[in-house]
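Incident review: delayed structure delivery

Summary: a single-chain prediction request sat in the queue longer than the usual turnaround. Root cause was a stuck worker, restarted by the on-call engineer. No data loss occurred. The affected request and its eventual output are reproduced below so the record is complete for anyone auditing the incident later.

Affected input:
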Amino acid sequence: MAGRLRRLGGVAFRQQKWKSSLSTQAKMPPCDFVPEKYESYPYERMQKIREQNIAPSLKTYYKRPLLLHQGHMQWLFDHEGRRYLDLFAGIVTVSVGHCHPKVTMATQKQLARLWHTTNIYMYPAIHEYAEKLTSLFPDPLKVVYLTNSGSEANDLAMFMARLHTRNFDIISLRGGYHGGSPYTLGLTSLTSYKHGVANGFGCTTTMLPDVFRGPWGGSHCRDSPVQTVRKCSCTEGACLAKDQYIEQFKDTLNTSVPKTVAGFIAEPIQGVNGAVQYPRNFLKEAYQLIRERGGLCISDEVQTGFGRTGSHFWGFQTHGVVPDIVTLAKGIGNGFPMAAVVTTKEIASSLAQNLHFNTFGGNPLACVVGAAVLDAIEEDGLQKNSDDVGTYMLLELAKLRDKFEIVGDVRGKGLMIGVEMVTDKDSRCPLPAEEINQIWEDCKDMGVLIGRGGLYSQTFRIKPPMCITKRDVDFAVEVFCTALQRHMEKAAAK
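Output delivered after worker restart:
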């Protein structure tokens, strides 16, 4: 479309010419679930408690925060009974659906039997779950240490890598999020999570191989149904962008760390940074370089695990690699606070030199929940659903990218999707926050909840419960399209 330049917030960008073409509001798919009547405090009292009694670092979404009351599969209900399609799944945590009947029933049954006893005793649930979970991993990844959160799992993975190798330095990718504990903050490489206190001793970041926003990359690089609109000179089977990013990785190894390292940690697809994907074979070559330095390779599967990427159960499998340590959380418990570190018998034995204990990790209730989640994924066909519905959604969103100049990139795999907003596709400058906020608020007002991510919070994160349907996708895409059209019309009127 022809356009003209306009300036907002000091940024000049191309504005498309728009005529109003808005149809009636998108029709939400039916749902036969009826939520209970809300009977807790009024909204205003909840707000007051939030201001006075809850830590201010725990931020809320939206100008008028939602007061959510009940959930059912892919749907959420607020205190006034309004229904929302949840495309963020409690920050990529509700894997099989809110209050999934099978998981709920198993939890209720265990609540009546035994809530907690530490793992100094034997009880059926931890052994049954350990066998079931590790059966899903390739050899030699057959030993699990159960914890309570992703930060805790990554913290332990760092500790294991250092103990086992007797080396100290760990490398992570810029833009990665690996936790908010003092230990893992050294691996996390997003400014908004950094506090003005010492952290990260022995942690080094290296260039993110981002084929959309990075210096190299283009239309043949990533493992996704949708490629970037950037042109590249890569040929089939030979990714020049990957080669350039590997050279940067080598440069980090040669200049910033000792000759031997403890490890390298990466998400198969970056989550908090907005579903950023690497060039094909980047991780495979990076793993080889780390192992040549005596280090262990850690796959952070906190967001990508449990079938979310569709084609494989674990994100690392999409890269054709086998890590030395894998960390799990979020979707492992469908919202129940649990996590895990899976590794080899040899590496796990490094912790046995001295006492290492976790009071709540792997307690009976958590293990029953985890087992029920695995059963639901298999019985409901959720990995295949992630592949089918996720691919469908990516292709539908790609049509919006082709239609709207401000939709810079659509990327992802399965139901791990990012939509990056820009002023224009040529400059790739992030769309100003006030504009993204309006699109985001409009989607919420029309009944669709979407996450945010990226260094500038410029990327919409779409990672719903894996039970979502194509009909739900049609509704969500229509809502998103309507919000984009409204934005463009408002911009054109200025």
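Verification: Confidence is low (pLDDT under 50) at residues 1-14.
Action items: add queue-age alerting; document worker restart procedure.
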